Amino acid sequence: MQTLNLNGYALPILGLGTWKSAPGEVYTAVKEAIKIGYRHIDCAAIYGNEKEVGNAIKTCIEEGTVTRDELWVTSKLWNNMHGENNVAPAIQKTLSDLQLEYLDLYLIHWPVAQKKLFVGASKAQHFLSLEEQPIANTWKGMEKAVELGLTKTIGVSNFSVKKLKELIANSSIKPVLNQVELHPYFQQDELVDYCHTNNIHVMAYSPLGSSDRPEGLKAEDEPVLLEDKSIAALASKINASVAQTIIAWDIHRGISVIPKSVNPARLKQNFEAVEIKLSDTDMANIKKVNKDRRYVDGKFWVVPDGPYTIENLWDE
Ligand SMILES: NC(=O)c1ccc[n+]([C@@H]2O[C@H](COP(=O)([O-])OP(=O)(O)OC[C@H]3O[C@@H](n4cnc5c(N)ncnc54)[C@H](OP(=O)(O)O)[C@@H]3O)[C@@H](O)[C@H]2O)c1
Protein backbone atom coordinates (compact mmCIF):
# COMPACT_ATOMS: atom_id res chain seq x y z
CA MET A 1 0.00 0.00 0.00
CA GLN A 2 1.07 3.58 -0.71
CA THR A 3 2.53 5.34 2.34
CA LEU A 4 3.11 8.97 3.31
CA ASN A 5 6.45 10.03 4.78
CA LEU A 6 5.98 11.60 8.22
CA ASN A 7 9.42 12.67 9.42
CA GLY A 8 10.89 9.44 8.06
CA TYR A 9 8.08 7.18 9.32
CA ALA A 10 5.76 5.52 6.79
CA LEU A 11 2.03 6.13 7.33
CA PRO A 12 -0.19 3.72 5.33
CA ILE A 13 -2.47 5.96 3.27
CA LEU A 14 -5.62 4.01 4.27
CA GLY A 15 -6.52 3.34 7.89
CA LEU A 16 -9.45 2.27 10.03
CA GLY A 17 -11.62 4.76 11.94
CA THR A 18 -12.92 3.67 15.36
CA TRP A 19 -15.25 6.49 16.51
CA LYS A 20 -18.69 5.04 17.38
CA SER A 21 -17.39 1.48 17.07
CA ALA A 22 -19.00 0.08 20.21
CA PRO A 23 -16.81 -1.77 22.72
CA GLY A 24 -18.65 -5.01 21.92
CA GLU A 25 -17.92 -4.80 18.17
CA VAL A 26 -14.65 -2.91 17.83
CA TYR A 27 -12.54 -5.88 18.94
CA THR A 28 -13.81 -8.01 16.06
CA ALA A 29 -13.63 -5.10 13.61
CA VAL A 30 -9.98 -4.29 14.39
CA LYS A 31 -8.99 -7.97 14.27
CA GLU A 32 -10.78 -8.45 10.97
CA ALA A 33 -9.27 -5.25 9.54
CA ILE A 34 -5.73 -6.32 10.43
CA LYS A 35 -6.41 -9.75 8.90
CA ILE A 36 -7.57 -8.04 5.68
CA GLY A 37 -4.37 -5.98 5.58
CA TYR A 38 -5.12 -2.66 7.32
CA ARG A 39 -1.98 -1.40 9.03
CA HIS A 40 -3.25 1.90 10.44
CA ILE A 41 -5.80 2.20 13.26
CA ASP A 42 -7.12 5.67 14.18
CA CYS A 43 -8.05 5.87 17.87
CA ALA A 44 -8.85 8.51 20.48
CA ALA A 45 -9.22 8.50 24.25
CA ILE A 46 -12.68 10.06 23.96
CA TYR A 47 -14.00 7.19 21.78
CA GLY A 48 -14.12 5.12 24.99
CA ASN A 49 -12.98 1.93 23.26
CA GLU A 50 -9.16 2.01 23.36
CA LYS A 51 -9.02 -1.00 25.72
CA GLU A 52 -10.91 -3.16 23.22
CA VAL A 53 -8.82 -1.84 20.32
CA GLY A 54 -5.73 -2.71 22.37
CA ASN A 55 -7.01 -6.23 23.04
CA ALA A 56 -7.51 -6.77 19.31
CA ILE A 57 -4.02 -5.47 18.45
CA LYS A 58 -2.50 -7.67 21.17
CA THR A 59 -4.31 -10.75 19.86
CA CYS A 60 -3.16 -10.06 16.29
CA ILE A 61 0.45 -9.66 17.44
CA GLU A 62 0.27 -12.83 19.57
CA GLU A 63 -1.28 -14.81 16.72
CA GLY A 64 1.48 -13.63 14.37
CA THR A 65 -0.84 -11.76 11.96
CA VAL A 66 1.20 -8.59 12.36
CA THR A 67 4.13 -7.18 14.34
CA ARG A 68 4.00 -3.93 16.29
CA ASP A 69 6.53 -2.42 13.85
CA GLU A 70 4.23 -3.12 10.90
CA LEU A 71 1.32 -1.28 12.52
CA TRP A 72 0.63 2.45 12.65
CA VAL A 73 -1.42 3.53 15.66
CA THR A 74 -2.76 7.08 15.97
CA SER A 75 -4.48 8.48 19.06
CA LYS A 76 -5.62 11.90 20.28
CA LEU A 77 -5.35 14.16 23.30
CA TRP A 78 -8.78 15.05 24.66
CA ASN A 79 -9.79 18.66 25.40
CA ASN A 80 -9.67 18.35 29.20
CA MET A 81 -5.98 17.35 29.08
CA HIS A 82 -4.62 20.44 27.31
CA GLY A 83 -1.68 22.14 29.06
CA GLU A 84 2.00 21.24 29.03
CA ASN A 85 1.97 18.97 32.09
CA ASN A 86 -1.23 17.11 31.25
CA VAL A 87 -0.08 15.64 27.93
CA ALA A 88 2.29 12.94 29.25
CA PRO A 89 -0.28 11.49 31.71
CA ALA A 90 -2.94 11.53 28.96
CA ILE A 91 -0.81 9.68 26.43
CA GLN A 92 0.37 7.26 29.12
CA LYS A 93 -3.27 6.40 29.91
CA THR A 94 -3.94 5.82 26.20
CA LEU A 95 -0.83 3.64 25.91
CA SER A 96 -1.89 1.64 28.95
CA ASP A 97 -5.40 1.13 27.48
CA LEU A 98 -3.99 0.18 24.08
CA GLN A 99 -1.34 -2.03 25.75
CA LEU A 100 1.36 -0.39 23.67
CA GLU A 101 4.75 1.11 24.48
CA TYR A 102 4.55 3.92 21.94
CA LEU A 103 2.18 5.55 19.46
CA ASP A 104 3.12 6.34 15.89
CA LEU A 105 1.15 9.59 15.89
CA TYR A 106 -0.48 11.65 18.65
CA LEU A 107 -2.80 14.52 17.77
CA ILE A 108 -4.36 17.43 19.63
CA HIS A 109 -7.98 16.35 19.00
CA TRP A 110 -9.54 19.85 18.90
CA PRO A 111 -8.30 23.43 19.33
CA VAL A 112 -10.71 23.56 22.26
CA ALA A 113 -9.72 23.42 25.94
CA GLN A 114 -11.84 22.17 28.83
CA LYS A 115 -11.15 22.18 32.54
CA LYS A 116 -9.55 18.92 33.65
CA LEU A 117 -12.59 17.90 35.72
CA PHE A 118 -14.94 18.02 32.73
CA VAL A 119 -14.49 15.29 30.13
CA GLY A 120 -17.80 16.39 28.64
CA ALA A 121 -18.54 20.10 28.37
CA SER A 122 -21.94 21.72 27.96
CA LYS A 123 -21.70 24.93 30.00
CA ALA A 124 -19.42 27.98 29.74
CA GLN A 125 -17.75 27.18 33.07
CA HIS A 126 -16.56 23.79 31.73
CA PHE A 127 -14.36 25.45 29.10
CA LEU A 128 -11.08 27.36 29.07
CA SER A 129 -10.42 29.88 26.32
CA LEU A 130 -7.28 29.53 24.21
CA GLU A 131 -6.01 32.69 25.95
CA GLU A 132 -6.32 30.91 29.31
CA GLN A 133 -4.93 27.61 27.99
CA PRO A 134 -2.79 28.43 24.94
CA ILE A 135 -2.20 25.78 22.27
CA ALA A 136 1.53 26.69 22.38
CA ASN A 137 1.72 25.38 25.99
CA THR A 138 -0.12 22.18 25.11
CA TRP A 139 2.24 21.75 22.16
CA LYS A 140 5.26 21.90 24.54
CA GLY A 141 3.73 18.85 26.25
CA MET A 142 3.29 17.16 22.86
CA GLU A 143 6.98 17.81 22.05
CA LYS A 144 7.96 16.32 25.43
CA ALA A 145 5.95 13.20 24.58
CA VAL A 146 8.21 12.73 21.54
CA GLU A 147 11.34 13.30 23.64
CA LEU A 148 10.08 10.72 26.16
CA GLY A 149 9.59 8.16 23.36
CA LEU A 150 5.82 7.96 23.98
CA THR A 151 5.03 8.78 20.36
CA LYS A 152 7.08 8.93 17.17
CA THR A 153 5.30 11.90 15.62
CA ILE A 154 2.86 14.63 16.67
CA GLY A 155 0.19 16.58 14.89
CA VAL A 156 -3.18 18.27 15.24
CA SER A 157 -6.79 17.84 14.28
CA ASN A 158 -9.49 20.34 13.33
CA PHE A 159 -6.92 23.13 12.90
CA SER A 160 -7.45 26.04 10.49
CA VAL A 161 -4.64 27.57 8.42
CA LYS A 162 -4.52 30.47 10.92
CA LYS A 163 -4.07 28.14 13.89
CA LEU A 164 -1.44 26.08 12.04
CA LYS A 165 0.55 29.23 11.28
CA GLU A 166 0.43 30.33 14.93
CA LEU A 167 1.48 26.86 16.08
CA ILE A 168 4.38 26.59 13.63
CA ALA A 169 5.66 29.98 14.80
CA ASN A 170 5.72 28.66 18.39
CA SER A 171 7.09 25.14 17.97
CA SER A 172 10.41 23.31 17.85
CA ILE A 173 8.83 20.19 16.32
CA LYS A 174 6.44 21.09 13.49
CA PRO A 175 3.08 19.28 13.34
CA VAL A 176 3.45 16.48 10.78
CA LEU A 177 -0.25 16.18 10.00
CA ASN A 178 -3.66 17.83 10.36
CA GLN A 179 -6.63 15.44 10.62
CA VAL A 180 -9.77 17.21 9.39
CA GLU A 181 -13.20 16.50 7.99
CA LEU A 182 -12.74 16.03 4.27
CA HIS A 183 -14.91 14.42 1.58
CA PRO A 184 -16.41 15.35 -1.80
CA TYR A 185 -19.01 17.63 -0.13
CA PHE A 186 -16.27 19.36 1.91
CA GLN A 187 -13.13 19.32 -0.20
CA GLN A 188 -11.02 21.80 1.80
CA ASP A 189 -8.85 22.93 -1.15
CA GLU A 190 -7.34 25.95 0.59
CA LEU A 191 -6.39 24.03 3.75
CA VAL A 192 -4.97 21.11 1.73
CA ASP A 193 -2.90 23.51 -0.42
CA TYR A 194 -1.52 25.27 2.66
CA CYS A 195 -0.66 21.97 4.37
CA HIS A 196 0.95 20.37 1.35
CA THR A 197 2.99 23.51 0.60
CA ASN A 198 4.22 23.50 4.19
CA ASN A 199 5.03 19.80 4.41
CA ILE A 200 2.08 18.98 6.66
CA HIS A 201 0.12 15.87 5.67
CA VAL A 202 -3.66 15.81 5.67
CA MET A 203 -5.81 12.96 6.98
CA ALA A 204 -9.48 12.86 5.96
CA TYR A 205 -11.96 12.08 8.72
CA SER A 206 -15.65 11.30 8.18
CA PRO A 207 -14.66 10.53 4.56
CA LEU A 208 -17.95 8.74 3.85
CA GLY A 209 -20.16 11.36 5.46
CA SER A 210 -20.35 9.81 8.94
CA SER A 211 -23.96 8.71 8.61
CA ASP A 212 -23.86 6.85 11.94
CA ARG A 213 -23.26 10.05 13.94
CA PRO A 214 -25.63 10.53 16.88
CA GLU A 215 -28.87 12.20 15.76
CA GLY A 216 -28.06 15.22 17.95
CA LEU A 217 -25.04 15.96 15.75
CA LYS A 218 -27.06 15.90 12.51
CA ALA A 219 -28.80 18.72 10.69
CA GLU A 220 -32.34 18.11 9.43
CA ASP A 221 -31.67 18.98 5.80
CA GLU A 222 -28.28 17.36 5.38
CA PRO A 223 -27.40 15.82 2.02
CA VAL A 224 -26.36 12.16 2.09
CA LEU A 225 -22.91 11.85 0.55
CA LEU A 226 -23.14 8.13 -0.21
CA GLU A 227 -26.32 8.83 -2.24
CA ASP A 228 -24.69 11.43 -4.49
CA LYS A 229 -25.90 10.81 -8.05
CA SER A 230 -22.78 12.05 -9.87
CA ILE A 231 -20.45 9.92 -7.76
CA ALA A 232 -22.84 6.96 -8.13
CA ALA A 233 -22.70 7.32 -11.94
CA LEU A 234 -18.91 7.42 -11.89
CA ALA A 235 -18.77 4.49 -9.45
CA SER A 236 -20.90 2.33 -11.73
CA LYS A 237 -18.72 3.30 -14.73
CA ILE A 238 -15.57 2.09 -12.97
CA ASN A 239 -17.33 -0.89 -11.40
CA ALA A 240 -16.79 0.29 -7.84
CA SER A 241 -19.02 1.36 -4.96
CA VAL A 242 -19.58 5.02 -4.07
CA ALA A 243 -17.57 4.53 -0.86
CA GLN A 244 -14.66 3.01 -2.80
CA THR A 245 -14.74 5.85 -5.35
CA ILE A 246 -14.53 8.42 -2.55
CA ILE A 247 -11.65 6.61 -0.82
CA ALA A 248 -9.78 6.41 -4.15
CA TRP A 249 -10.38 10.17 -4.67
CA ASP A 250 -8.69 10.96 -1.33
CA ILE A 251 -5.74 8.75 -2.16
CA HIS A 252 -5.35 10.38 -5.58
CA ARG A 253 -5.08 13.73 -3.77
CA GLY A 254 -2.25 12.38 -1.58
CA ILE A 255 -4.53 12.51 1.47
CA SER A 256 -4.65 9.68 3.99
CA VAL A 257 -8.12 8.42 4.75
CA ILE A 258 -9.68 6.54 7.69
CA PRO A 259 -13.18 5.23 6.90
CA LYS A 260 -14.87 3.61 9.91
CA SER A 261 -16.59 0.26 9.56
CA VAL A 262 -17.43 -2.65 11.84
CA ASN A 263 -18.81 -4.72 8.98
CA PRO A 264 -16.42 -7.35 7.51
CA ALA A 265 -17.69 -6.97 3.91
CA ARG A 266 -17.42 -3.17 4.03
CA LEU A 267 -13.99 -3.35 5.71
CA LYS A 268 -12.80 -5.46 2.78
CA GLN A 269 -14.51 -3.28 0.19
CA ASN A 270 -12.95 -0.11 1.63
CA PHE A 271 -9.51 -1.74 1.76
CA GLU A 272 -9.74 -2.78 -1.90
CA ALA A 273 -10.33 0.86 -2.90
CA VAL A 274 -6.55 1.44 -2.74
CA GLU A 275 -6.30 -0.40 -6.07
CA ILE A 276 -8.79 1.87 -7.90
CA LYS A 277 -7.42 4.21 -10.56
CA LEU A 278 -9.26 7.46 -11.30
CA SER A 279 -8.59 9.55 -14.42
CA ASP A 280 -8.12 13.32 -14.40
CA THR A 281 -11.66 13.58 -15.77
CA ASP A 282 -13.02 11.43 -12.94
CA MET A 283 -11.22 13.67 -10.42
CA ALA A 284 -12.59 16.79 -12.13
CA ASN A 285 -16.12 15.38 -12.01
CA ILE A 286 -15.87 14.70 -8.28
CA LYS A 287 -14.50 18.21 -7.76
CA LYS A 288 -17.80 19.57 -9.11
CA VAL A 289 -19.94 18.02 -6.35
CA ASN A 290 -18.35 20.12 -3.58
CA LYS A 291 -20.91 21.85 -1.34
CA ASP A 292 -18.52 23.27 1.32
CA ARG A 293 -20.67 21.33 3.75
CA ARG A 294 -19.37 20.15 7.10
CA TYR A 295 -21.09 17.26 8.84
CA VAL A 296 -19.07 17.61 12.07
CA ASP A 297 -19.68 21.34 12.38
CA GLY A 298 -18.32 22.00 15.88
CA LYS A 299 -21.55 23.63 17.10
CA PHE A 300 -21.31 21.44 20.20
CA TRP A 301 -18.44 23.68 21.41
CA VAL A 302 -20.60 26.78 21.25
CA VAL A 303 -22.52 27.40 24.50
CA PRO A 304 -24.06 30.61 25.91
CA ASP A 305 -21.31 32.93 27.25
CA GLY A 306 -18.65 30.30 26.40
CA PRO A 307 -15.29 31.15 24.82
CA TYR A 308 -15.87 29.32 21.52
CA THR A 309 -17.85 30.49 18.50
CA ILE A 310 -18.13 28.92 15.05
CA GLU A 311 -16.06 31.87 13.76
CA ASN A 312 -13.17 31.53 16.22
CA LEU A 313 -13.24 27.71 15.97
CA TRP A 314 -12.83 27.48 12.20
CA ASP A 315 -11.41 30.99 11.56
CA GLU A 316 -13.74 31.34 8.58
N1 LIG B 1 -10.43 14.15 14.61
C1 LIG B 1 -11.74 14.25 14.72
O1 LIG B 1 -12.29 15.20 15.30
C2 LIG B 1 -12.59 13.18 14.11
C3 LIG B 1 -13.96 13.43 13.89
C4 LIG B 1 -14.72 12.43 13.26
C5 LIG B 1 -14.12 11.23 12.88
N2 LIG B 1 -12.79 11.00 13.14
C6 LIG B 1 -12.14 9.72 12.74
O2 LIG B 1 -12.50 9.42 11.40
C7 LIG B 1 -13.11 8.14 11.34
C8 LIG B 1 -14.11 8.04 10.19
O3 LIG B 1 -15.12 9.01 10.32
P1 LIG B 1 -16.62 8.67 10.82
O4 LIG B 1 -16.59 7.48 11.71
O5 LIG B 1 -17.15 9.95 11.35
O6 LIG B 1 -17.44 8.36 9.52
P2 LIG B 1 -17.25 7.68 8.07
O7 LIG B 1 -16.06 6.81 8.06
O8 LIG B 1 -17.38 8.77 7.09
O9 LIG B 1 -18.59 6.84 7.98
C9 LIG B 1 -18.86 5.75 8.81
C10 LIG B 1 -20.20 5.18 8.39
O10 LIG B 1 -20.12 4.69 7.05
C11 LIG B 1 -20.51 3.30 7.03
N3 LIG B 1 -19.68 2.65 6.00
C12 LIG B 1 -18.39 2.28 6.08
N4 LIG B 1 -17.96 1.73 4.93
C13 LIG B 1 -19.02 1.75 4.09
C14 LIG B 1 -19.22 1.32 2.74
N5 LIG B 1 -18.23 0.77 2.04
N6 LIG B 1 -20.46 1.49 2.20
C15 LIG B 1 -21.47 2.05 2.92
N7 LIG B 1 -21.34 2.48 4.19
C16 LIG B 1 -20.13 2.33 4.77
C17 LIG B 1 -20.27 2.80 8.43
O11 LIG B 1 -21.13 1.73 8.75
P3 LIG B 1 -20.57 0.27 9.23
O12 LIG B 1 -19.65 0.48 10.38
O13 LIG B 1 -21.83 -0.44 9.63
O14 LIG B 1 -19.91 -0.32 8.03
C18 LIG B 1 -20.66 4.04 9.25
O15 LIG B 1 -22.06 4.12 9.38
C19 LIG B 1 -13.74 8.01 12.73
O16 LIG B 1 -14.19 6.70 13.01
C20 LIG B 1 -12.62 8.52 13.59
O17 LIG B 1 -11.61 7.54 13.72
C21 LIG B 1 -12.03 11.97 13.72
Summary tags:
about 325 residues, alpha/beta, TIM Barrel, eight-stranded parallel beta sheet, two-stranded antiparallel sheet, about 35% helix, globular, binds NADP nicotinamide-adenine-dinucleotide phosphate
Question: How is this fold's topology laid out?
Answer:
Layout: E1 3-6, E2 9-12, E3 16-17, H1 23-36, E4 40-42, H2 50-62, E5 72-77, H3 87-98, E6 103-108, E7 113-114, E8 127-128, H4 135-147, E9 151-157, H5 161-169, E10 177-181, H6 189-197, E11 201-205, H7 229-237, H8 242-252, E12 256-257, H9 264-272, H10 280-287, H11 310-314
Parallel strand pairs: 3-4, 4-5, 5-6, 6-9, 9-10, 10-11, 11-12
Antiparallel strand pairs: 1-2, 7-8
Helix pairs in contact: 1-2, 1-9, 2-3, 7-8
Bound molecules: NADP nicotinamide-adenine-dinucleotide phosphate (NAP).
What does this structure look like?
Helix content is 35%, strand content 15%. The chain is an alpha/beta fold and 316 residues long. The protein has a single domain (3-314), classed as NADP-dependent oxidoreductase domain (TIM Barrel, Alpha-Beta Barrel). The strands form 3 sheets. An 8-stranded parallel sheet has the order 3-4-5-6-9-10-11-12. Strand 3, helix 1 and strand 4 (40-42) form a beta-alpha-beta unit. Helix 1 (23-36) packs parallel to helix 2 and helix 1 (23-36) packs parallel to helix 9 (264-272). It is globular and about 55 Å long. The two termini are 35 Å apart. NADP nicotinamide-adenine-dinucleotide phosphate binds at residues 17-20, 42, 109, 157-158, 179, 205-212, 226, 241, 243, 258-263, 266, 269-270, 296.
